[in-house]
Amino acid sequence: MSERLTITALGHEGDGIAEAATGRVFVPFTLPGETILADVEGERGQLAEIVAPSADRVAPACRHFGTCGGCAVQHMAPEAYHAWKRSLVVDAFAQRGIEAEVDPLVPLAPHTRRRAVFSVLKEGNEVTLGFNRRESHDILAIEECPLLVPGIEKRLPMLAGLALRLAERGKRARMTVTATDTGLDVAFEGGRKLGRSDFESLGHGAEANAIARLTIAGREIFASRLPELRGDKLVLYPAAGGFLQAAAPSEAALIDLVETAVGKSNPVADLFSGIGTFTLRLARRAPVLAVEGDDELLKALDRSMRFSTGIRTITMRKRDLFLNPMAPPELKPFKAVAFDPPRAGAKAQAEMLAKSVVPTIVGVSCNPATLARDARILIDGGYRLTRVTPVDQFLWSSHVEAVAVFQKA
Ligand SMILES: C[S@@+](CC[C@H](N)C(=O)[O-])C[C@H]1O[C@@H](n2cnc3c(N)ncnc32)[C@H](O)[C@@H]1O
């Protein structure tokens, strides 16, 4: 029998939280203030009926909401959604004992995600291209996705057709699609073994379908044009299947925040630089040292350097910053350091930065928990946290980017 519950809060994954007789219950797709009926099993509740909806409840934007594992909170009005996302950052810092003044969230509009990683499964002569179903490893075929830029969304049938040709029956594969200024950059992993005739026909099909580059199992099999992201005399070259900030407006917001914090500092170091998203912009004002662990991304940055204009010297270093972080004597010449690590954060590097004399440090992160941990290390080392800004890059999910600025106290 369903239990009547009142939702009192929203958890970090976007589930409503109720205090039931048996304890805390998490009920997906519910909102604070709502009275609901739910089928409860342990800590999990399944929404059966909304008795009294919240004023913040809105109709979801996508027909797949609820079954697709991608989005958690499409049912929430923008203002409440923005406040909740900001609270994820506030809470992460508070958990490390940091009472930070956190800026309002920089919001993101739908139809802005320019990079998507699709799962693929071929069974018989049919292919499923989509995202994982909610709480499942099964793939949900995606017919629409209001997150995606139209250049990807409207080509979903074409991409499914391509996946059908590349996939091996019964074996799960992965297709990474990036919309660039010169066409789609498609990277396929886990497909069937291809022969010479496959490569030739795939090349023809790719050109006709606005695919700039097709890479299969790390091998570039077709490149009519190099995928490029252009802006303001600068050009970025995404690496096939490699890291790229997922949405251009969020990337612009992150760059602005980093540039503002760095100001006129000279010289600058950009740690975990990737293809140079921040490096290139910072290099318009000062020489930059870019440090990154992945060869392919550094190669892309090297190309950007040669084809961008109006930039100062960029020095590139390949280095594992987890095992071999830059030490205080190496950091000494820099007036500002930006770091943008993967989700695991930059603990070892933060420990070195904490001991350094670098006047300004800017942390960018897609994981507020590790950013807050690294912030604690810097604060304990004598840095003052002067600004924290949450930036939405993964709309309607529980993920949020944040930029934190530190000054040597
Ligand atoms: C969140 S991405 C940021 C990239 C870049 N700042 C951008 O905005 O495009 C993190 C980067 O850290 C790099 N990385 C991951 N582990 C690393 C390590 N141990 N040492 C150096 N770089 C690493 C990845 O290759 C990736 O480029």
From TrEMBL:
Keywords: 4Fe-4S, Iron, Iron-sulfur, Metal-binding, Methyltransferase, S-adenosyl-L-methionine, Transferase. Its EC number is 2.1.1.190. One of its GO terms (molecular function) is rRNA (uridine-C5-)-methyltransferase activity. The active site is at C366. One of its GO terms (biological process) is rRNA base methylation. Residues 1-52 form the TRAM domain. S-adenosyl-L-methionine binds at Q245, F272, E292, D340. It comes from the Bacteria. InterPro entries: MeTrfase_TrmA_AS, NA-bd_OB-fold, SAM-dependent_MTases_sf, TRAM_dom, U5_MeTrfase_fam. Belongs to the class I-like SAM-binding methyltransferase superfamily. RNA M5U methyltransferase family. This is 23S rRNA (Uracil1939-C5)-methyltransferase.
